[in-house]
Amino acid sequence: MILRLLAISIVVSAITFLSCGKEKALPQDVFRYNESKGISTLDPAFAKSQTIIWPVSQIFNGLVQMNEKTQLVPALAKSWEILDDGKTYIFHLRQNVRFHDHPLFEGRIRYLNAKDVQYSLLRLSEPQTASSGAWVMNEVDRDTLSQGFSTPNDSTFIVRLKRSFPGFLGVLSMPYCYIVAPEIVEHYGNDFRSHPVGTGPFYLKAWREGEKLVLRKNPHYFEKDSLGKRLPYIEGLAITFINDKQSEYLEFIKGRLDFISGIHHSYKDELLTNTGALRQKYHDEIILKKAPYLNTEYLGFLTDSSLSPTANKYLRKAINWGFDREKMLKYLRNGIGQPAEQGIIPVGLPSFDAKQTAYTYQIDSAKYYLNLAGYPNGINLPSIILTTTSDYVDLCEYIQHELKNIGIDIKIEISSGATFRDQVASSKLIFFRGSWIADYPDAENYLSLFYSPNFSPSGPNYTHFKNKVFDNLYEEALKCTEDSVRWDIYKSMNQIVIDEAPIVPLYYDQVVRFYHRNVRNFEANAMNMLLLKRVIKD
User: Fold this and answer.
1) What whole-number distance in Å separates Cα of residue 24 and Cα of residue 21?
2) Does residue 191 share a domain with residue 319?
3) DSSP code of 442?
4) What kind and span of H or E run contains 469?
5) Which are the contacts of 393, defined by CB distance < 8 A and separation ≥ 6?
6) pTM score of the predicted model
7) Residue 367 within any structural domain of the chain
8) What is the pLDDT of residues 151-174, one digit of tens each?
9) What is the pLDDT of residues 461-487, one digit of tens each?
10) Same domain, 317 and 419
11) Cβ atoms of 406 and 322 closer than 8 Å
12) Per the structure, how many domains does the chain have?
């Protein structure tokens, strides 16, 4: 009964904290941003999109984390060892890391232990959880007696894999793998989505869905800066849910939001020149921060369809040569991004090779391959349907116009987000607009799109690309524990993708952030993570 009354008291004070009349109660050094798409859950087991990843990453920690340079560094694990040719990982946990205070802990300090880690990772693949991140445990050897995990003591956690998998540490940095308190999850069940308790730099103060979400500083957070000062610096985080991007922009200009992310057609020309620079009139008020983003935008072909000319490699190559990527970025994206002229692996990964040139704008080459395909000047070539969502119609119409000049007729069909994703995943589209944002910072994540055992719908090979040499190299790379050697293998695989052209790489994206000058230590990073632990707001 006491616990119940205490929980009710917390909810009541949270509602008071969020009431319109109490808005001024928020401290000055609270970081404010808007999430136009809303937030559906704060459970890391369902952190499949940026909208969820950003707040979840403030509340929870994983064993490892990525810093501003996309390097894997310690988090809840202070160190680790990799043994058995890359199949066994031994993590040594920090001691005295505590979960956020909660009435269920009955006034005691709840310290993290190895059993919490085991519970959190096992939970991902349990059917009753139905986590969208269940796949991240695919490489764990669940057939062993310990189901791939063991905890010899409170501060040691061991994982055993089926085979060597060099990207595994990167996988563990994903929000899916953040560590939860078992008793909190068991108590709330599905309602854990709105009652998250983690070890992160901020804890949930209040959440009025569709209106505002407030996180406050965790006074017991374990990380400190180089001078020994406990992180985070700011007092909290406030997230609003204005769904109109133009209104969001106006709130930012008025100073009611601290930053906005990305470019949107409603304000891109107001803030940016067509070369991607911040317009002069905003220099005294706003900082523009850009960084390579591990996201490759592309057009994909269904390569094994006997009903479509896209099964013809030479036609696919003609399309790749047939339009100007630089002009596309300049006029449609205000210079944000880099032309994807080096294949599927994006700028920002160490295996990206700027010298590995794929396709540029070469009209003669486009016509040459169109002729090899059996369609000189497009004669007898049927129309090809390109399916996209409404957000990318302008890019697709640009490519449609460019290709028409060489005799390739593209018809554009627009599909809704959910329907479009289902159509792509079930390989029902012969030509589609796609993108791949890295789940973890390793090129294997991109190259897995072309590994034939990953045919959709069970895997991400939506193009149904199949190449025996590629598959052999992919399997060889998984066994390779030496980074530089593995990166060379990746480059060879990337070259096969370039030569066989199952996709049309469009551009390598950039993280773009606009924020006010009273915000410091706010860095952009290649995974587009929202890192707020070291942010200072004057």
Assistant:
1) 8
2) no
3) S
4) helix 468-479
5) 412, 414
6) 0.87
7) yes
8) 999 999 999 999 999 899 999 999
9) 999 999 999 999 999 999 898 889 999
10) yes
11) yes
12) 2
